[in-house]
Amino acid sequence: MSLSVRPQRRVLVTKINRSQSFAGVNSSADRPFRNLSPFTPTVSRKTGSRVSRMFSMSHKSPPPKVPQPNRLDEVYEALKKGLTAYLEVHQLELEKLSTQIRESKRNSRLGFLYDLDKQVKSIERFLRRLEFHASKIDELYEAYCIQRRLRDGAHNMVKAYSTGSPGSREARESLAEASKGYKEYTENMCLLENELESQLGEFHIRMKGLAGFARLCAGDQYEIFMKYGRQRWKLRGRIEVNSKQVWDSEEMVFLPLVTEFLSIKVTELKSLANHVVVGNVSCETKDLFAALPQVVAVDINDLGTLKLSLEVTWNPFDKDDQPSAASTVNKASTVNKRFSTYNQSPPDTPSLREQAFYVSVQQAGLLRRHGQW
């Protein structure tokens, strides 16, 4: 899939064509995104495989001063859809493992069944945590909706008292009380909005490479700068021969935000003091709430000849509350490998405990034959 971009006010830009993507901000022209099969970038790293994280204390932004109820509604719907997909994927894996346990009870080792049962219990715990997490988000959203209705009512009262004749003291006191309630409900909405934002989990973004077809040449150097609220990610790369790309950083973890969009700026480094900005776009992120990893493509320039390929994986919990069971479903390769391993027929070779049991049975039979039992 490709990533939709939001139109920006730039001097040299007439319009931004976006490919089929997340349902983002409508642009002036929509066109399908071309398949990336002719170009498969190969990304290698200069440094070790360490994931960068933007979890400094400065990232914890204070509550907003003005609530954004319309935007919060969109993010809430996308979040609920992603949590539902997460539950369905793990429920499907749980059913498959339970079926394998029932089919493997007769002819299998005890260790094999124990391993399956251990994974089933782990997924069941993760499902309960997901359900609790979804119910917590629903409670926060319901409280937000209540405060929104109270705020709208207070706004209507302030408007009514302001348009009327403020002659009596009772009218002035009622206006002051309504204004105080409006301010209080607005602060509550901002606090709930910030609390709901802290429950969005995290985005793991992996750099896949630039796709430029004839646009990229060996020896070109690029700098990519991503900005997501207070979070930053800057990386530099070089185009090698045979379409290989070398980047100094490969992975980053971003915390999702409600009102912010992901800003991406790509600059071509031609010389020491000669840098050419290829494109600067702003992308929608609410459709990144998905159960499985997504490979997205971002149109960097207006013509779409240069695209940035990213692999985005969403975790519904943050780094401190991430369960181990989530990693079994986030990567499709891991799931396929596990299922292929479990679908194999169980071994017929008896275990040591079974062998000892068979030996004791044979010895008891020999004692019966000789009358010594």
TrEMBL record:
Give the record's GO CC terms: cytoplasm
- Superkingdom per UniProt: Eukaryota
Q: SUPFAM superfamilies in the record, alphabetically?
A: HR1 repeat
Any Pfam family matching the protein: PL48
Sorted alphabetically, which InterPro entries does this protein's record hold?
FAM65_N, HR1_rpt_sf, RIPOR3
Task: Provide the FAM65 N-terminal domain boundaries.
Answer: 16-362
The record's listing under PANTHER family reads:
PROTEIN KINASE PKN/PRK1, EFFECTOR, RHO FAMILY-INTERACTING CELL POLARIZATION REGULATOR 1
As for family, the record states: Belongs to the RIPOR family.
**Record protein name field:** RIPR1 regulator
Gene that produces this protein: Ripor1
